[in-house]
Amino acid sequence: MVSRDGSEAGRRRGWTEADVDVVISRILRTGLTLSAALVAAGAAIFLARHGGETAAYRVFRGVPPDYREVGGVIRAAAGFRGRGLIMAGLILLVATPVARVAFSVLAFLRQRDYVFVAVTLAVLAILLFSVFWLGLR
Prior knowledge:
With 137 residues, this protein is mainly alpha-helical. The protein has 4 helices and no strands. Helix 1 (17-50) packs antiparallel against helix 3 and helix 2 packs across helix 3 (82-110).
């Protein structure tokens, strides 16, 4: 079916590659920008509160228990704690490419390109496995 302006827009199924590229670039740009903003805000708050402290290198203090789970990081970030905002920004930075792959699955489904759906689902499964299973050890 040819549209009024003579193009073949009526014949295409799903999104064009250009449409998908635009959305993917927005996902990546937004994720990176928000992540950088969270890390910068967290660093400013952390340095404002702890910048004058002397570092004690003889004693190793690991990550506090509040920051060992995503829920604790989110609670700390919601409370505008510097380290919580920094860690939330890093979590968002890791989640951005995962969101891009998840969107790609939807785009390939919409385009009815089932070979790429299968391949992208495999990539998404590997990413999720590495984040949730391997990341918990």
